[in-house]
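Q: Sequence in, structure out?
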Amino acid sequence: MTARTNEQWIADLKDNGAARETALGDLRAIVQKGLPYALSRWLSPNQPQFNSLVEEVTQETLLRVLSQIDTFEGRSQFTTWVHKIAVRIALTELRRKRWRDSSLDELTENEDAPPPLGLLADSQAGPETSAERADMLARVKRIIEEDLTDRQREALILLGVRDMPVEAVARKLKTNRNALYKLLHDARVRLKQRLLAEEIAPNDVLSLFEQK
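A: Exactly. Output:
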């Protein structure tokens, strides 16, 4: 595998010839090597679906990197940036699969469930930062339970945490898209007011519940 600087990664991936294919091959190997460790909290490499998930995530990661390469700002190693993209894609896919098999209470009460994507801790974060983010997640969960109606709470959790498609949420709640959007709007307004009162940045949380 060729060792590259950030600039060399960018140049090779933007190349139209052999350099790009070699870089993509090296990047594929890096992603596939790092995912088992990164995902070990949520999915054992021994589980049957693990290999297919890694392959699916790797392919999507390479496509995402190529489409977003101009957004890389060089504040970290290029491979670190790619790794974070891969983990986010993997956890999104795990949530999409999870909503079919888990009850709402099980997911929201299970500390091992993947956290909402927008609040995902940096894999390199230290214990103090991780503890602060865990505390924020706990506070957000409490606010959702205390301030929202059961119906609002269920809609937000299904969309934001379990990443359930809007159409599926509407069917589950026996409503339509327009009524669901109104329900979400009212919930977001109420949630934003409480977040501001508790000095939690609303955008960090509300971005999880955007209409899809």
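The longest helix spans residues 18-38.
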